Amino acid sequence: MMANALPATYCGRFAPTPSGPLHLGSLLTALAGWLQARSNSGRWLLRIDDLDRARCPSGADKIILTQLQVHGLHWDGAPRYQSDHLHEYLDALQTLRRVSTVYRCKCTRADFLRRARSGIDGPIYDGHCRNLGLNDERGGLRFAMPSGMVCIETFPLGQRCADAEHDLGDFILQRSDGVVGYQLASTVDERAQGITEVVRGTDLLASSLRQSALLDCLGIGKPRYLHLPVLCTAGHRKLSKQNHAAALDCSAPARNLVRCLGWLGQSPPPSLSAASVQEVLDWALLHWQPGAVPDCGSLQVE
Predict the structure, then answer these.
(1) In 10 A of CB 120, how many CB atoms?
(2) Cα–Cα distance for residue pair 106/99, rounded to 1 Å
(3) Whether the Cβ atoms of residue 139 and residue 105 lie closer than 8 Å to each other
(4) Which H or E run contains 87?
(5) pLDDT tier, 4 (very low <50, low <70, confident <90, very high otherwise)
(6) Residue 236: its pLDDT value, please?
(7) Rounded to two decimals, what is the model's pTM?
(8) 72: closest CA among 281, 286, 287, 289?
(9) Are 277 and 71 in contact (CB under 8 A)?
(10) Nearest-angstrom CA–CA distance, 152 and 198
């Protein structure tokens, strides 16, 4: 199979954390993923990443579902809630403990930040507890990254590689409070849902590489990746719930979709600004060109 070829049966997904409503950056990812799936006559699944219950206020998931429906982005099958699949993540954790190096880590967040070194997406763990042989039940569990390079195929960027130990670092598989880490849960979910391509922002490129290392250890085939530019404010702050990005205006869904198509390099005609949601999506599906998606790391929202 060629590096950028897609499998015969396509399956994509959108996986928001229900920590608040979707914003324009979320819609950009959802729309691109939906278009990739539908243009390849594939399935587009919805996953709700709700393992960290403290970050997920009651009812936030229902708001997200409504926002997607208002924008015409209908998913296939029932949404997969991570909180319903804890046993799958714990089974995978046990497998990793048998086939690779998983170690107990007693470092607090403050310890981590004090000792952290620079990686490709910010501070990474310095491996302080890797060789201490801690065997009690206190602390979290970390994955010891193997030495060497980790590589993935990503469109439109091509092959991307990183030094596993020095660029990515050892990461959390299970926190000290028992919550399963994002990287492990996402890896298990991709396998369980049969995902063939992951569509996400370039800010998660390092996560794609870390999950690739987990997939290798678990003996699981890797999906293809499509990394999108990240929407930022005029002050170069990423649109995110953490940065208090405004919720999608559900009174103007067609306008939101047209704006996202522009950021995705699809050059929607001015006439679409007065179209219905279905008309916008019909045009987008007919004209979808993933090769036109900008390969830059970020785009500024006007």
Answers:
(1) 15
(2) 22
(3) yes
(4) helix 86-99
(5) very low
(6) 63
(7) 0.92
(8) 281
(9) yes
(10) 12
